[in-house]
Design goal:
173 residues, alpha+beta, Phosphatase 2c, domain 1, 4-stranded antiparallel sheet, 3-stranded antiparallel sheet, 6 helices, globular
Amino acid sequence: MLTQVRGRIAGAHEALRAEAARRGEGAILAAALVVLLVRGEHFACLWAGDSRAYLLRDGALTQVTSDHSLVQEMLDAGAITPDEARTHPSGNVITRAVGAEPEALDLEKITDRLQGNDRFLLCSDGLCKTLEESELGALLASPDPASPAELLVAAALAREAGDNVTAVVVEVA
């Protein structure tokens, strides 16, 4: 299954590169991507760019992915603090994306074992840059009958998120 998904993403990558080439010099068609695969008692997450995956397990929220962005590189190097990263002017500069790589796309991957009642959040940067991680965790854990994804998107839109806002929640029973 993982090989098939990688193949489909590689096909999309090549299609975007071909369309950008057709449009002429300087054209870039690219997208951040995060994919969650669940099979049996295991999961795999593939990503490129700054769309994220989070895991809520036993009440604790963990960021599964690491952004492929200029700001993340500066943060990792200790050049800026997490607070500075949230509002940095280069916050939307990604260093890896479907359609943007000159050669084959290098998807990052993480695999792990599932536990009962794991809940995953896959989201665009518009969500995670608008809401604090504590808010993401609280809304994701909410027993509210509304979908946690709807609650997360509504909270981000109420704050007039500066980017697109997408949330997908996957619960593993």
